[in-house]
Amino acid sequence: MHSENLRWETLGALKNSPKGKLKYSPDWLEKGEVKHRNELHPRPRLNTCSLTSCVRDTSPGLSEEGSFPVSPRQISSPVSIRAEEDEQKVTSSLLNVSSPPAMSVLSPRATQMAGCILMCEHKHKARAKAELSLRLEQQERLVATVSSCESEQLKRFEELMELKQRQEYQSMRDMMEKETQESLGRQEKMREEHRHRMKILNLRLREAEQQRLREAELERQRQVEGRERHRAINAIQEEVLQLNQLLQPRPSTQTDSALDHTPYITRGNQLCSQVSEVVPASADGQYPSVEDLNVAERALQEMRSLVRNLQDEVTQAVERKRKEQEEEEEEKKRHEELKAQQEEQQKNAARSAKEKARKQGLQTGADDSTLKWYNALQDSAARCAQAFDELSTAKDTQTKKLKMELQKAATTPVSQIANISGETPASSRIALKLFYFIFSLKNFNKCPSALVFNGKARQVYLYSTFRTQW
Q: Which one, out of 161, 323, 343, 458, has a CA that is 20 to 30 A from the CA of 414?
């Protein structure tokens, strides 16, 4: 056992040494790479029995490690051994050198060493085979992936080629039909000439020919009508697709969350599918029937009604939105007017407070608020005068009659109008003008220009009444 361990240690040292990098092969003797050694030390003659006995004579270390396979290259046949012996005899006779007795090449020690080397080689081969199998599996997976991608591309290419082939077949069929029609026309002309030349034919053949012509005419008429229906179905399909695009939500209507396009889009897609189911049936060489055309027309009418309903809903939504905006604007205006009236009431309260203060004591100058009120009153008077222009240019008889009565009342002497002695004509004139203004506002509330000064007129009327009584 100790000697066996030493042998394995020796083999490990040889493997790690630079000389151990050289690979041993038992085929060197067969290849003739050690021919010079054979010339110096010729191999003794061996027979098959001695060879098998040497191979079986293994050391205890090899029996413990296990048997190893012996390749056909390691055990040569008796014929090859005899041929080598003949060559050795020839070389020994040529050299004429007396060789000393040589030791046996296949001794137990050498056989054991060769077996250890072969075991190492088998281990390396097994490891290499495992790595090779792993690499082959990776390559196979890569090849499978690439083949799947290439097969998909091949399918797309085949589909494209089939489409081109169908288009070419369609164009060729149209050309053949055209040539067939032309040939039929030429045949018809030739047939007419033949009829003129063959007047001696009997009536039965003529009737058969006429019957055949009638059938051909009916077939041609059927084909013409079929083509017309085919064109009509294609036009209907195109219009249906265009109308289906109108059902899609536009950027202007996407902001309106109340309008839902989903049912319209779903129904539009169903109608497009219904029309497209009719088209392939007519594309297989058969012409569409009248029922197919009616189905396509009904689908078109329904699609048009869908588009019309959608447009009506969009219009209603826009109208609702516009009304909401107008209501918001009116609400804002009313809020502003209410705010202005409140401010005006506050100003009037401030003025009344100042008037009470002025009654209690003398005032040499006007306040800033009084001047502002005076300027505002002048502006109101200017706007009132502008409103009076509309009254003066009115064409209604009732309005003209009211205008004459007011003018008559304005030109009446002051002594007939004044009820308080000592009242000045100016105050009476102001009262008449204010009465004329307020009466016109009460009778012409529908006038937009008069509605604007309604609040101002009340203020002027209150001020004039207070001044007249005071």
A: 458
Q: Which of 325, 377, 326 shows the shortest CA–CA distance to 351?
A: 377
pTM for this prediction: 0.30
The residue count of the chain comes to 470
Q: How far is CA 9 from the centre of its chain?
A: 73
Are the C-beta atoms of 230 and 282 separated by less than 8 Å? yes
Angstrom distance (rounded) from CA 266 to CA 253 = 18
132 and 138 Cβ atoms separated by less than 8 Å: no
* Residues 244, 268 contacting (CB under 8 angstroms): yes
The confidence score (pLDDT) of residue 230 equals 85
Nearest to 299 by CA among 316, 318, 324, 274: 274
DSSP 384-422: HHHHHHHHHT---HHHHHHHHHHHHHHTS-HHHH--STT
Torsion angle of the four alpha carbons 39, 41, 42, 45, in this order, in degrees rounded to the nearest 10: -170
Residue tagged 């209410």 (tokens): 338
Cα separation, 289 vs 76, in Å, equals: 88
Instruction: Give the DSSP letter string of 240-285.
Output: HHHHHHHTSPPTTTTT-TT---HHHHHHHHHHHHHHHHHHHHHSSS
- Whether 251 and 261 have beta carbons less than 8 Å apart is answered as no
Q: Is 440 exposed, middle or buried (0-12, 13-18, 19+ CB in 10 A)?
A: buried
- Nearest in space to 258 (alpha carbons), one of 296, 314, 336: 314
Domains of the chain, by residue range, sit at 2-141, 151-223, 229-327, 370-469
Neighbours of 350 (CB within 10 A): 13
Average pLDDT across each block of 10 residues of the chain; the chain has 470 residues. List them in order.
66 73 62 49 42 38 37 40 51 44 60 86 90 92 92 92 92 91 89 79 81 90 87 87 83 56 85 80 67 87 88 87 88 86 82 72 60 80 73 72 70 55 50 53 42 43 44
For residue 96, what are its two tokens? 């004429």
pLDDT computed for residue 435 by the predictor:
52
First to last CA, the chain: 150
Query: Cα angle at 270 between 269 and 276, to 5 degrees?
Result: 90
- From residue 250, how far is each of 197, 256, 270, 316, 364 by CA, in Å? 73, 10, 21, 16, 72
At position 12, the amino acid (one-letter code) is: G
Structure tokens at 249: 């939500």
